[in-house]
Amino acid sequence: MARSESVRFGIIGCAKIARKFCRAIYLAPNATLVALSSRSISKAREFKSVNNLPDTVAIYGDYESVLNDSCVDAVYIPLPTSLHLKWSVAAAEKKKHVLLEKPVALSVDEFDVILEACAANGVQFMDCTMWMHHPRTEKMKEIISDPSRFGDVKMVHSTFTFLVDSHFLQDNIRVKSNLDSLGCLGDVGWYSIRSILWAYNYRSPKTVIANPNPIFNESGVPLSCGACITWEDGNQGTFHCSFLAHFTMTLGITGTRGTIHLNDFALPFEEASSFFSLATDCGFPDLPTHWKSLPSKHVVNTDLPQEARLIAEFSKLVTNIEDNGGKPEKEWPDITRKTQLVLDAVLASIRNDCTPIHITGWDKY
Question: What are the residue boundaries of the Gfo/Idh/MocA-like oxidoreductase N-terminal domain, all occurrences included (predicted)?
Fold first, then answer.
């Protein structure tokens, strides 16, 4: 396929989050936006105007046209979750690389169909869990992977909540059973589940047990829930996600020799600079009136926001395929599948009166 030096993106769907990714594509050094589509040409024109996109960006009033555009190398898909299977498979069959919003599917069975289509057509897949691409995440992984500094990870807890209004609860896509039936679990619980798996280096959990008394709307969409993920060795990860509580985005990782805390794990307080606290070998003095040592603050700077770094990483993988004859990288799709597998188990536990669900099929790919 004849291509410019930058990976050329098309956007399928003018969702609010797409505005952020338009900016990210322009900030990334190896990507450019060439096309976007909506269900109506008028909405596509409005999106282009509001976001001050250049005249060179083609606009379409249907999704198929982006897939048929020979100038498009890769597509970003921010559609409702119920549409991910159809349009991800359609994109892969048109040889377009797939950058897909989370949650990636309504079930791991659906996602496996997407993966099979991407594999059959030699295209790269990646989900849009942006915080994974921040250099702070890399720095924290370096610390928790060092036994001499952090010991062994024993417990992880994550909370991601935000308080919505009555309009959201009535009209937002994320509470519509026919569009995004996973509700808060898919929207913000996805981040917490990923953070737990990330901290444990994606080792296979043994069981998932949902917390009792989850809250649903009248359509059966979860508005508030949580779970405990357990490993064979007794290690645990717990999380809570909700549309009904104050904006909170915490992550705590506890090892045998250290603890990491941060209050903005999915979206840093500031784009250019972020931080986390690290406590190592802490304890009480002989007279327990204070801490013997205090946590330290670790600042991590970045030249690009995390969403632009995601675009840059994805574009690098696409370029390796298109220009160098490389094969799609499998690590990112595998991480996505494992996240979806745990999400499915949480939902299964909720539907079965919060009984333990055993994890199977962990290393399918």
Answer: 7-126
